[in-house]
């Protein structure tokens, strides 16, 4: 039995025993987990499917419809029948690789009690349920403008588009994310006054908090959100002894906010606290990928919160883009040092392979660079596969990334472009990104820059006129 099979056997057996006993496509996250974007009224069952709209009228009388949308209920029915919802294609891609790879439907289901999973499987899929784990964002206010993000999730990204106009000369399906300033995500203004989704959430909170096991607050950047600190006041006034609160922060805020976060973790009127933060590369490469981040400051702030806060665990959300592959092993080494100093779960790592936009996916790289990066990661993993600082789930995710780079050919089913288009947009985007952000892609290895020099940009693509605060498509 190979490394991957040995490492994931327990998870594989659990999937067969629990999930597959309901159906071969069943995932408890469709019932018990949700992400809700309160700023503009969108939701999805996890971070993998594309968000869909919440019915503004239904939440007036049924605030639980923030989670229990008609769309989700239809997907629940499909899963009970053993059908594969297309929006969950990432998990199907992972499972179809073979090699007993463990998809996210296992990781996202295994956190729940078997009795809760059995109960939802036996109930009517159209019945409203209270989730056990919930992620919310109040708005898109954010102090960073990470390269793979966009204006819909970051006000700093929006400022870039308003100042410099849309990105130009791009061909692939990912281009649209960089053609707008995301204003549609703030229909109720910066402070969400009169926002029916926020109002429904606070109305739902007394019932929700009685059964909810974990509330995760993200953004944008949670710590610079006006509504987050309003919610913090509600938390201080109400006891929820069974609730775990988790905050997703980029940790690049002012020192006083870092201290406020540490103080918040020490409140005794909820059960426990988890920290989520994001990084996946080191040094100047990390700073390049996440514009506004300074790697050493981020790492210092992470260590300060771990050592001074009341944390159950700290998790690093690693977004795996093509660029993150070049220093991912150095990053894992840095996290191993912190694990050794504090605890294996302080921090834990969670690898999320980027699919959107397609031209930033690791799969958009040419084969010789993919092979180079995969071999580096394989060599690191060979040396660390028995390292007790990394748990079986972390190791399975690292092996999954190695297999994904080797086997999968397209980031997602909607990718119709050939690699030439994706690689054209890779060069076009980062050339503009460098100019706008004062960066230099030369911080990455020569194997990447040599390849980029072979790509010619197509100057015949219809341009998008660049006006501050406006978007005009000449080819519409």
Task: Tell me briefly what this model is.
This protein is of the alpha/beta class. It is built from 18 helices and 13 strands. It has a nine-stranded mixed sheet with strand order 3-2-1-4-6-7-8-10-11. Strands 5-9 form a two-stranded antiparallel sheet.
Detail the topology: elements first, then pairings.
Layout: H1 3-22, H2 29-32, E1 33-37, E2 42-44, E3 52-53, H3 58-61, H4 70-80, H5 89-96, H6 104-110, H7 114-122, E4 133-137, E5 145-146, H8 155-164, H9 196-211, E6 214-218, H10 226-237, E7 240-248, H11 255-265, E8 270-278, H12 283-289, E9 290-291, H13 295-308, E10 313-320, H14 328-341, E11 348-353, H15 367-384, H16 392-407, H17 419-437, H18 446-452, E12 464-467, E13 470-473
Parallel strand pairs: 1-4, 4-6, 6-7, 7-8, 8-10, 10-11
Antiparallel strand pairs: 1-2, 2-3, 5-9, 12-13
Helix pairs in contact: 1-6, 1-16, 15-16
Outline the structure in words.
There is one protein chain. The chain is 43% helix and 13% strand. The chain has two domains: 3-133, no CATH class; 140-185 and 213-473, pyruvate-formate lyase- activating enzyme (Alpha-Beta Horseshoe). It has helices at residues 3-22, 29-32, 58-61, 70-80, 89-96, 104-110, 114-122, 155-164, 196-211, 226-237, 255-265, 283-289, 295-308, 328-341, 367-384, 392-407, 419-437, 446-452, and strands at 33-37, 42-44, 52-53, 133-137, 145-146, 214-218, 240-248, 270-278, 290-291, 313-320, 348-353, 464-467, 470-473. The protein has a nine-stranded mixed β-sheet. The chain has a two-stranded antiparallel sheet with strand order 5-9. A two-stranded antiparallel ribbon has the order 12-13. It is of the alpha/beta class and 476 residues long. Helix 1 packs across helix 6 (104-110) and helix 15 (367-384) runs antiparallel to helix 16 (392-407).
